[in-house]
Amino acid sequence: MSVDADQSAPAARDCLAGAAREAGALALTFFRHGAATSARINTKAGGSLVTEADLAADALLKARLGEAFPEAGWLSEETVDDSDRLARRALIIVDPIDGTRAFVGGDPRWAISAALVIDGRPVAGVVHAPALGETYAAARGAGAEVNGAPLFASAPVDQRRLTAAGPKPILQAMGTKLGATVEIAPRVPSLAYRLCLAARGAIHFAVAAGNSHDWDVAAADLLLEEAGACLVDASGERLTYNRPDVRRGPLLATPDALAPRLLDVFRAATGAGA
Question: Across the chain, how many H-helices and E-strands are there?
């Protein structure tokens, strides 16, 4: 599949969705609702978990998407990074299981995240939560959807009362600085899925602490943009991808209409940009 023409974005989205669903079906064979996974578990450097389901889903995605987008580089949490990607216009970014600890413990709020990036910005993105039966998909210029229904981020009618997801201390500090009541949603173990909640208007905004990576956010970034929201760092600018450093500082996902009000308090609450 060509990655040069803008009109290829919907086709790329559909391709990503098909691969993500296939990887999700594979991962579900190891998942146990409310119980420990049947998959073998190892610990990576830094203490994060990886299971045989992560690795199997990663291999499947690389095979399917590598065949579909032969011109694209590859970036995944579970694959050794290859600097060759930096010389390519196109890049596939995946997290085969975002929220591995949730997956291991039987919590259904984990997701498969896949994005196609061209010239530094995603043009197609999918976040598939197989244990919840939810597939979020977006193509540049063609909108965002969940299970075929359009997604729209929502700004509050009463800006003195907001709903949010993310680290509690940051959200509480933002509420204090805003002079508003911020109702904090229960912890969402998958960052990609947390951002999807903002894209679909289930919460007004979401925050990520400074420990995320490109594979956690690239697909949801486009979902937010196409739903009328944005994912920004302390600069207030949208993120660019295919950089040598894939780590991110604190991030804010907010409807476009709320961004001017939230950005300053986000910077202050996180110490970002200080």
Answer: 7, 16
